[in-house]
Amino acid sequence: MKRPLLIALIFGALVAAILFCIPDKSVPFDEPETVSGSAGKEAQHPKPANAPTPPTPGLLLPQVAMTAAIEYKIDPIALNREMEDPPFEFRGGAGTGRVIDLQGNVLLESSADIGIFGAVVSPDRKKVLVRGGDGKSLILEPSKNQKIVPPFKPPGSNSFPFDWYWVSANLLFGISGVERTFHEGSHMDGESNIAQTKFYTFDLLTGQLFEVVMPRAVTQSVVKVVDVMSDGHIHLLQDDLDEGVRQDLGWFKIAE
Fold first, then answer.
1. Residues 184-219 pLDDT 10s
2. What is the pTM for the complete model shown?
3. 114 neighbors 130 (Cβ within 8 angstroms)
4. Domain total in the chain
5. Which of 19, 56, 190, 252 has the fewest CB atoms within 10 Å distance of its CB?
């Protein structure tokens, strides 16, 4: 009885030894492979062959439309009412003046930071756009003791500083453009240094700058602004280079 039991024990030990020596070929549970460098990035996120090049951050702006205004006419009565008894005024000389309120309190004086050349009251009569030299501007809202500095110029190179106008209580319309580059000796007297006119809006509530999409009526790269109304209407004209005449494009409206 002992001999068969001994044989069984020896056989079992041999089987166990053989199984222990066989390599384990099982697959581990979804262990991700860490690959460093650009090769690893391509392996994890392959880029399609026709994928577009991503835009350069900071150069693209959200856009807003400018549409033709049908039969718009200036209301002189409303315009005069808007200008009556302004709550803020500019006093003094160009570049050395100051902005005051109805009580005569000085809200802002010309300084080394900004030489004041003018002040324009907002449509809601709560704010004032202060125009300074060298393209500098700022917004004062005395009731909130708030000062807002709008953008100085658009993103990108060779851009002119903004010329800001009210088009609603909390929206500014900005005129800028791309500067023309001249080769040495090719600049003629009286030749415009503007290669392209660009329009923008600035939302005071969100601090967002928008680029205005030019309407289809604008066919030239340079367009002139005749009037900017505080209700958002803008009068444009352009020089037709082919015909040699100036075209009155009429009134347009900025979308809000």
1. 544 444 557 889 999 999 999 999 999 999 999 999
2. 0.73
3. yes
4. 1
5. 190
